[in-house]
Amino acid sequence: MNKKEFVTLIPEPAISRLFFADTRFAWVWLVFRLYVGWFWIEVGWKKVLDPLWTGDRAGIIVTAFIKGALNKTEGDYPDVSEWYAFILETIVLPNSAFVSYIVAYGELLVGVGLILGAFTGFAAFFGSLMNMSYLFAGTVSVNPIMALLQLFLILAWRVAGWFGIDRYLLPLLGTPWHPGKLFKKQTSSSSGNSSA
Q1: Theoretical Cys-Cys bridge with 79: which of 26, 102, 114, 138, CB 3.0 to 4.6 Å?
Q2: Range of the domain at 119
């Protein structure tokens, strides 16, 4: 049997291409990006400046948050699942000071990446990962809407940073399946050196 017989390519719908791959829609993603990015910069910057997050008392707020989440594991319909409570209790709680720094600077970096439109897909992914972590810990707040907006930014990663650094960065770096200009030059120069 031919290897191609096992491959079925389903074409991308036109509406999906329009929303998530067409640069004419980049202005919509710019609005999403700036809104979500500003949110992360605002909350991250406050944490970076707070000694309970990144100072000599780092970890106090994370510890209180984790203990509160662990209290939500009781009852017939707990807000926090047992498997997530296990992660919080055995990994996060003993390393609360380190996690405190990761959260504070992580939120800030996600915001900066989104505002600048640099590595937009990655920034949105890590932002939504934080939102999902907070949701798993039983905290609703703005997390569902932020996670949803970032999901759309992840889907639109090819054009979400068009009005930003990604417009130049993505063609330069490329993707794992399609090397950019930077790596094409290295490949052609290394192959030229091997033939000499």
Answers
A1: 138
A2: 24-164
